[in-house]
Amino acid sequence: MAQIYYDKDADLNVLKNKKIAIVGYGIQGRGQALNLRDSGLQVIVGQRPGGPNYEQAIKDGFKPVDAQTAAKEADIIQLLIQDHLQAEVYKKDIKKYLKKGKSLVFSHGFNIHFKQIVPPKDVDVWMIAPKGPGSLVRRQFEEGKGVPSLVAIHQDASGHALQEALAYAKGIGGTRGGVFQTTFKEETETDLFGEQAVLCGGTSELIKAGFDTLVEAGYAPEMAYFECLHEVKLIVDLIYETGIQGMRKRVSDTAEYGDYTRGPRIINQRTRKEMQKILKEIQSGKFAREWIRENKNGRPNFNKYREDGDKHPVEKIGKELRAMMPWMKK
What we know:
Layout lengths: L3 E2 L13 E5 L3 H12 L3 E5 L5 H8 L7 H7 L2 E4 L3 H12 L8 E4 L3 H4 L10 E7 L3 H9 L6 E7 L5 H11 L2 H4 L1 E3 L2 H16 L1 H16 L4 H10 L1 H17 L4 H14 L2 H16 L1 H11 L3 H12 L1 H10 L8
Parallel strand pairs: 2-3, 2-4, 4-5, 5-6, 7-8
Antiparallel strand pairs: 1-8, 6-7
């Protein structure tokens, strides 16, 4: 079982005299920056001019600066830009300002684990990864609650990296929900596997396969959309709130019986073997090398996949049907 830390295990005073740079004011960056500031800590926002994120930072009362300035002034540098951009920004804007006594921080371990970023040995390197989007991190904090988070220590040059990490977690509200100790390796590999095999890759392909099967059999695409995509949220919400068995007990007995008897025919031994293969590709670094190469080459395959995905019939019918559902509009 993982070690779990709570409010009583963390002391905000550890960070009282330190400046924290949030590099990247996207959804996660905004949530963490606002929570840290509301916890009484000093926050610098590193965000390039232009675009909605820069304007949002100003609207929220920050005075955003470039990444170099943020890294130079801060004692703790949290990188919250996208994975494929982190190494370049680190080398160009942050590396030269990483001095002994500073901390380099992440909310995902990709670039450290796959050695795209190799920090100097005299700085602390740690991770606080909320298990939810930045908007939820912010909302829960405002309600006096917190999103459970992960903590991992990659380098403990100072001897008190864990104390700083837990104080940071407390600053964003994580210790209210519980902070689970892990490693950069475990967080990175399980995160990538979950995305590829279940949450994104597995789910989206299962939806499209179900939709295509019904439409090819002559059923109306509207019916196929409702049964194979629209109602996924209803089931996922039940699983999220009550677990798999809780979901099964809240659907019809017909659906539950079909789940037990037909589900294993879809996710069968062949599927499980492919999952094992995908996991090995992640563990060996094969996927990371492929993704890094894809970005260096201008993303030709990524862009083609996205273009093809936009053209799938489930997207066309879905757009039409969602237009009829005003409660979905923000």
